[in-house]
Amino acid sequence: MKILTKAFGEVEIDPRDIITIKGGIFGFQKFTKYIIMMIPEEEPFAWLQSIEKSSLAFVIIRPEVFKKGYTLKIDKEILDKLKVKSFNELISYAIVVVPDNVQKMTANLQGPIVINPEIKTGCQAISLIPEYGVRHFIMEEMSKAKEE
Amino acid sequence: MLVLTRKKNESIMIGDNIEIIIVEAHGDQVKLGINAPRAIPVHRKEVYDAIQSENIKAAQKQVPKLAGLGKLLK
Questions:
Q1: Fewer CB atoms near the end CB (10 Å): N or C, chain A?
Q2: What's the ipTM?
Q3: Phi-psi category of A96—alpha, beta or left, where left has phi over 0 and alpha has psi -120 to 50?
Q4: Closest Cβ–Cβ partner in B48, B59, B63 for A7
Q5: Which residue stretches of chain A are H helix?
């Protein structure tokens, strides 16, 4: 099927790749169908693109890319909700804010998007790790990880 | 909005399985105890609000140029 995307215009997608974000993303609860789009030039960034609203898309990144020792610790109820037995079966993504000065881009580790790839279902969770906030400077975290 | 006055150790019930107890009250700070089924997530509202406002910022209108940004991360 063809969908209109925010970053790439019209794109052909496989409907089997559509992910249901249960309850939607906070602030955008009306929309629950998304697709993850990646192009090699933009790696390790990807897009979480709404199927229902073309102008709604988020830049996302795997937290493991920039956060050393990233751990997913969220409410255990989410295991049932996403039909997994352990958090290891879930893939985490952090939503990224990219300002004009890209050096200052931040990622949200407090509200990760967690997805069970097997059933293409996910949700926005709240991290129970006190150190994880909504604004982690990605570049700073990277250099911190290098120093250690 | 329903407003109720409660004393220390008194509680309110929401439905038949959520209980909110006033554990302690000191000036402008109130300590609450919450008994709810595990299926009901309980979070401080500020956390929700902070995540929501970050989401809205992330969904900004212009499309950021990501090509080549990955190099900065290496």
A1: C
A2: 0.93
A3: beta
A4: B63
A5: 77-81, 138-147
Across the interface, whether the CB atoms of A25 and B53 are under 8 A apart is answered no
Beta bridge partners of A21: A122
Global pTM? 0.88
**Distance to chain A for B69, nearest Cα, Å:** 7
Terminal CA-to-CA distance of chain B, rounded, Å?
52
Q: Are A27 and B52 in contact (CB under 8 A)?
A: yes
The DSSP secondary-structure symbol of A102 reads G
Q: Closest Cα to residue A35, out of A22, A55, A20? A: A20
Instruction: Please name the residue that has the structure tokens 């952090």.
Output: A94
Alpha helices in B1-74 (DSSP H): 45-58, 69-72
pLDDT tens-digit profile of A51-98?
999 999 999 999 999 999 999 999 888 999 999 999 999 999 999 999
List the one residue out of A40, A42, A32, A57 whose CA is nearest residue A115: A32
Span A114-125, pLDDT tens digits: 999 999 999 999
Strand runs (DSSP E) across A25-117, as ranges?
A: 33-37, 45-50, 57-61, 91-97, 106-116
